[in-house]
Every structure is written in C-alpha cells, then in structure tokens.
Fold this sequence. Notes:
By secondary structure, the protein is mostly helical. It contains 8 helices and no strands.
Amino acid sequence: xxxxxxxxxxxxxxxxxKSDFVDFFSRVHPATPxxxxxxxxxxxxxxxxxxxxxxxxxxxxxxxxGLAIWTLLEYVIHRYAFHYEPKTRIGKQFHFVVHGVHHxxxxxxxxxxxxxxxxxxxxxxxxxxxxxxxxxTAPAIWAGFAGxxxxxxxxHYAIHHFPMKSGIWNRLKQHHLRHHYxxxxxxxxxSSPFWDYVFRTNRR
Length: 204
C-alpha cells in the first residue's frame, strides 16, 4: 500500500510501496518512452506506407489525426481521471499512486513518465481500437497517437527539470507550473494548452 507523502518541491523521491520489488517498478527512467516507442512509431509508419500502401500525404494527415486524438485524451485523462477526488480510503490511496504522488513530489525524476506495465497494454488496446474504427489507416493514426504520448512524457520531464526560459517552451512550462503551484483545477494540458482554451480551463 502507498505510504503518505507530504508536499515538496524538491527532487526528493518518496517510497510508495512497502515491497521493494513493487516500489522498484514504480520508478521509470525518463528515456524509457523514447526507447520503447520510437522504433514502434517508425515501424508503424513503414507499415502504413509499404504494407497499407497509403500515400505520403495520407500518412501525414492520419498521423496528424492520431496526434490530435492524443492531445484530447491527455486533457480528458488529466482532468477527469487524475483529478477525480475519491471519498473512500482505498480510492484515495489509488489516486495517490496514479497521480497524487506527482503533485506531492513534482520533481521526482523517476515518477514523471508512465510505467511500461501500464503504457504497453494501453498502446495495444488503442492500436486494436484504431484498427476497428479506421481499418488500414490505423498504423498511421497510431503512430501519431504514440508520437503525441512520447512528446507528452518528454515535455513533462523537461518542464520539471530543464530551464525552458524562452519562446513556446517557456509558455508550456509556465502553463504547467501554474497547474502545480497556483491552481490544480486549471491548466490540464501539458504538451499543449489547446484544449484548456477550448473548454475554458486555462485559468479559473
């Protein structure tokens, strides 16, 4: 079971589970999504071009659709799942494991990306869903979807650990840090604030 954490802005990494085995796998190196998914994205694009025989323009457009689907899903999950406020003790413990630990220890470098034990089954489920909904264009859509996820994890890590002092990177950093330190009921988009503007949750 997760142990209680106290809010901190340091790089401290709290122990979440009494089991050494389980706690070890709750920590993920930030490069893990890149190593896992970049080869799969390239393979999906190759399959879309050479097996599904889609044109380059079609692949670009379907890739863009997959990317857009990811940004919306990122917003929805962050807003409605990660910030759901459970009433039961078990619900609160589960919420802490899923997202609460990140708000209590936002600079814990080993808990900024999704564990492969969670991301891989979800990637398979969404690939199957895209095949069911979109047929032979699914590999291009999934590539965009997975690319969006990799960008999300990479940007999220950079926001908490890189300077990002100018341009769009600084805007993304300030957008997310406002969510952490000023109002956690606004600013749900991490890789993009687009849906926060659409649903008027940029600021309360």
